[in-house]
Structure formats: C-alpha cells, structure tokens
C-alpha cells in the first residue's frame, strides 16, 4: 500500500529519512547533501515528503528549487506501485514543476503526472552519476593543483558563465560573477595551473558522512584535449580522499562522451542514470 507522508518540520524529516538516504550516499548525493546543509533557521523547503510502501520508506521527495523536485534512489517499487504513486502525487501536490532523479522511476512518474494533469513534459538533461573509491591515474601534464583565490575572480567568473551555459543552466554575467565569488569564498574551488596559467577548475560540494561530490568541472575550449581536466579532477579527488572521505561522486552529461571517458579513466564507475524532466 503506497502512501505519501508530507512534513512541515525539517528536523522530523531528517530523523525519518537520512538513514534511508545513507544506504547509498553517492546515488543520493544531491538530495542528501542539500538536506544536511539546511537547518531550521533556513527558509522552509518547498516540499518534504516520504513515500512509504507498507510502512517502509521507498522513496524520498525534496524540493528547495522552484523548478524541480529531487527524487531519491528508490527502494524496490513495482510498475503498479509507481502508477499508484503518480496518481497520488498528482492529487496531493498542487504544483509539480519537474523532477530530477533516477531515470526509470522519474520517467514513469512524469508520464503518469503528465496524463493526470494534462501537462506535457520535456527532458532537459540526461546524466550518469559516477562514484570513485580509489584514484587510478597517471599525470599527463606538468602542472599543479592549487586553491582558487580572490585575485582569480575575473577569470573564474567567465568560466562559471560558460560552464552554466554548456550545462543548460544559463546565468547572466552578474549572476556568474556572484556565483564565482560564492565558490571562491567557500574555499573548495581548485584549479590546475600550468606555467603560471590556470587551465581547468573543479569544485567540491555536498559533503555527507562518507561521500563528497565534485562539480563545476570546466576547461576552456583553448585548453581542451590536453589532459588538464583529467589531471585536475584526479588530483582533487585524491586530495578529498586524503581528507577522510571514503568516496567521491559526480554527475556527467551523457551527451558529452569526452568527460565520461575522462572520469572512467580516473577510476570513477557508473552507478546510476539520472534525468531532469520539466512540465511545461
């Protein structure tokens, strides 16, 4: 029997769902990382819900972004369960802007909700989630990894702008500038430096009990296909493992075979496919 339990208390929500999410920290890195970064003093999330199947949590739904609800990695759910869930979500949640989650369940839920609400949906992005436990990499270039600092801001602002453009999350130049400032101030933004020039960057975010996620991996077009991104991500991943994280995870756009190849060569392994769907 499928039921949806909605929460008003962030503390109660965390108490109920974190142990379920931690069964696969890497696959749930987005939901778990965002959830653990919030406190009761922050703005209340737009949606906090647990889907229970015979009283056991089978799926977690969490929304802080106005355009999408994050779906956890699901427990075993039959096609009939997912059909029932889609109908109940359409009835229970007034506004469903879109989903990001494991590909199979996300597509099925989107289909049922689109039918129930008479609202067409579209796929924005298909990604693969990777997890690494041990770096397997030989350095390709004579460079070094260093933390990005305030004086790098003019360059990083442009890189953030281009990264968001290429990942279909466009920002204005002012927004990119503000984002660059935020990433630099967090202290987890690094770059690969060759002969005094920055040639690639990466950022670490959403730390959980054992896992941390790498994102904002970007190399400008004039420096691509030289091994810089590979060296940057490999060295940064090793640094994070040395800090005590047991695993690192990242998302890769399935339409970019180069980045997927690079991550696999470093030692990242595919664990699940993810998809972003929005309702129009």
UniProtKB/TrEMBL annotation:
The keyword Phosphoprotein does not apply. Gene3D superfamilies: 3.40.630.30. It comes from the Bacteria. Pfam families: FR47. The keyword Transferase applies. InterPro entries: Acyl_CoA_acyltransferase, GCN5-like_dom, GNAT_dom. Keywords: Transferase. SUPFAM superfamilies: Acyl-CoA N-acyltransferases (Nat). PROSITE patterns: GNAT. Residues 143-280 form the N-acetyltransferase domain. GO terms for molecular function: acyltransferase activity, transferring groups other than amino-acyl groups. This is GNAT family N-acetyltransferase. It comes from Paenibacillus silvestris.
